[in-house]
Every structure is written in structure tokens, then in C-alpha cells.
Amino acid sequence: MPTWTRTPYGGGGELSSARLRTGSAERAGLDPGPLADLVRAVRALPGGARPWCGGAVVVAGRGPVVAVEEAAGWAVRYSGYDEKAGAGVELPPDARVPARTDTPFDLASLTKLFTTVAAVQQLERGTLGIDALVGAYLPDFRAAAAHRVTVRQLLTHTSGLRPELPLYDCRDAAARRAALRAEAPVTEPGAYVYSDLNMLLLQHLLERVTGRGLDVLVRDGITRPLGMAATRFGPCPGAAATEDQRRPWGKADRGMVRGSVHDENAWALGGVAGHAGLFSTGRDLAVFCRTLLAGGSYGTARILGPDYVELMLTAPGLGFAVDQPWFMGELAGRGAAGHTGFTGTSLVLDPATDTFLILLANTVHPVRRPADNAPRAAAATCLARAVADRRPSSSVAAPPS
């Protein structure tokens, strides 16, 4: 097991579990110039002829100090999508809902990070083995058992399972479960293939081992002890709207989605899924980041020990992506960890400089489109340049195709 040796900013060589507080850039040990650039960049995202998103919230800080917390644009801007015009149907200005710093957003794949923490908690307790066979816990999941898929492979996306399975087309819950049980890897386990199915199998495994639902594991093991009252599985009526979800661009005919999970598989599974389903706010996610940067503690609460946090965040990462410039910008390069979500969300934490960045947006409002990660990378680069004691890297790589 690795040993946590990081000396965080202002920590005096010990991990700090101080609660978050709002403060100036200087108080956080950050250069105010690049942070002002960050705020300007995020304020511009909902603007222009082809806005990147309907609305956005950004939260950034260092140590226990939140130095940036801004909202821009609209949580609800459109009533629908006009397929013939290829554009959103805008609501009248007085019917739109502004984005606020406390607006909940559909986290999409950021949910995977919470499923990961729930799994690593079981590793720490000894009820789960990192290199144990999935079939030892889920013998009825015959295909995964036959191919000797391991827990580590689920957590590192090296199980060989395909990216997704159209569970939303299954006739009922029994058919969805049967499809998962029968799903075999499409490549030899060991190679990296990003897959939602990894986290769905991990959800079933955790529920089998603990006898509790994933929503209960996340609530009792993470959000409740950390005081993250705004983080929960849906429904979440006050959340930012996502997509006017209709075929052929959507995988289901649901109309404008707001307060219900955007991901069709998570929706078909009742809103609680290992890969998607959580809603949260920027400040709540800042608490999550602060907890991990402090070795698993926040205030008087501890959700993980430092060694297990480092195991999760050390390359190649368990659940977390590590040093990915395509969305981390110049924060990548020294062990930054994080994830993105299809709806427009992203989270990056950098243990080397004790900094964190949360960007929440509804880029799929009013309709999904090809991913543009440049704003995510640019926001992270602004934060990297605000860290006075770190020299930024010379280039930002493109995302993998």
C-alpha cells in the first residue's frame, strides 16, 4: 500500500482537514490575475452565437480557501430543440431560470468518482479485494466470471467491457439485469477501454457485498458525514435543465429533461446507477475535493485513510483519470486527478499544489453535440497559472479520439 507523503499548501507537513472558507486569491496563495481570467472565460461560455452551454458554475481554490465561486448564464434557457432549424427554442427572458452558485447540476460521469470512493471504502474495511475476481462476489454474472475480470480492472477501465449496453431498450428490470449478467468483454481484459459497464458491475458488487443500495452507500459513507446536503441521486427538481431528449439524437423520447438523470441507461435503471445519476452543486463538490486533498478527512469526519486516497489518485488511478491535459490543461503533469461528465461537468484536484477546480455546465442544453473540451482545459490552465510556486507546462495535448 502506498504511503501518503504530500505536504499540502499551508499544512506544515501534516494533512489539513480544515473546513472550506471563502477568501481572496492572495489568502489562498494564488495570483489574482489568472483567476480573473478564469472568471471572464466562464462568464463568456453561455454567450455568443453558438454558446458552449446554457449556464455554468465554477468553483476554484487552494487549501481550505475558496477563491472563485461564480455563476453565469441560465439553468434553464430553452423550451426545446427545433430539429428543422437546428437550434434551440429560447424561452422568453422572464421565463428563463438563471444559474446560481447553488444550482444543482446533473453530474453525469462524475458519479463514477463516488462509486469509486464507496468501493475503496470497502477495500479499506477488508470486505473487498482489489485484485479479487468479480465472479467471487457475483457468480451469477457469468460472462465476467468466465473471463476472470477483477475488481481492479473495473476501477481502471481495463476489464475489456464495451463502452455501454443499450439497457434503455430492455423491456423490464429483469431483462436489464440478464443483459448485464451475460455481457462478456469485447477485448482481452488488461487493455484500457473506458466503459460505463465497469461501474454498473461495481455497483452490483458493492450492493451484494454490503446488502445496501448504492444510493445508501453514497449517502451514509460520503455525503452525510461530509455535510454534502445538496448531493444526491435524483429526482432533483431545481437542477439545471439538460436535453430536449428525443429520437433520433436521443436514445429515448423524454422531452426536455430537468431534475431527472440525463443518461438514458441510468434513467432506465431508476436514476441510481454506478456510472451516472448524482446531482450536486459546486460548493458540495469543493468539499469532496478538499476531503481528498486532505487525505480523506474534512473537519471531524473521515471517509477514507490517507493511504487509500493515494491509492485511488496515483496513476493510473482508480476511478479517477490522472494527468489528462485534454481537460486538465496545464494542471496535468504532476499527478492531477479528476473526471469529466457528458452533461458538461468536470472536476480536477491537484495534490502537488493543493488546488481544486470544479466546472459545472449544461452543455447538452437544449441538445447533445460533439464534445468540446477546450473550455475545460482553458479553465484548468488559468488555475495552474495562478499557482505562484508552479511553472506551467509548455503545451496542452489534444483529447484522445
C-alpha termini separation = 34 Å
Query: At CATH's second level, what is the architecture of the largest domain?
Result: 3-Layer(aba) Sandwich
Question: Which segments are poorly predicted (pLDDT under 50) over 5 or more consecutive residues?
Answer: 1-14, 390-401
What fold name stands as the CATH topology of the largest domain? Answer: Beta-lactamase
Q: Approximately how much helix is present in the residues? A: 25-40%
> Please, what is the average pLDDT?
93
CATH class placement of the largest domain:
Alpha Beta
Tally of distinct domains: 2
**Percent of sequence in beta strands:** 15-25%
Tally of contiguous helical segments: 13
| Largest sheet: number of strands, sense, barrel closure | 8 strands, mixed
Q: Gyration radius, to the nearest Å?
A: 20 Å
Shape: globular
Structural class: alpha+beta
Helix-strand sequence: EHEEEEEEHHHHHHHEEEHEHEEHEHEEEH
Tell me the layout of helices and strands.
Blueprint: E1 21-22, H1 32-44, E2 55-62, E3 65-76, E4 78-82, E5 87-90, E6 97-98, E7 105-106, H2 111-125, H3 134-137, H4 142-146, H5 151-155, H6 173-182, H7 196-210, H8 214-226, E8 232-233, E9 244-245, E10 255-256, H9 264-268, E11 278-280, H10 282-293, E12 297-298, E13 301-302, H11 306-313, E14 321-322, H12 325-328, E15 337-341, E16 345-350, E17 355-361, H13 374-386
Parallel strand pairs: 1-3
Antiparallel strand pairs: 2-3, 2-17, 3-6, 4-5, 7-11, 8-11, 9-10, 12-13, 14-15, 15-16, 16-17
Helix pairs in contact: 1-13, 2-7, 2-8
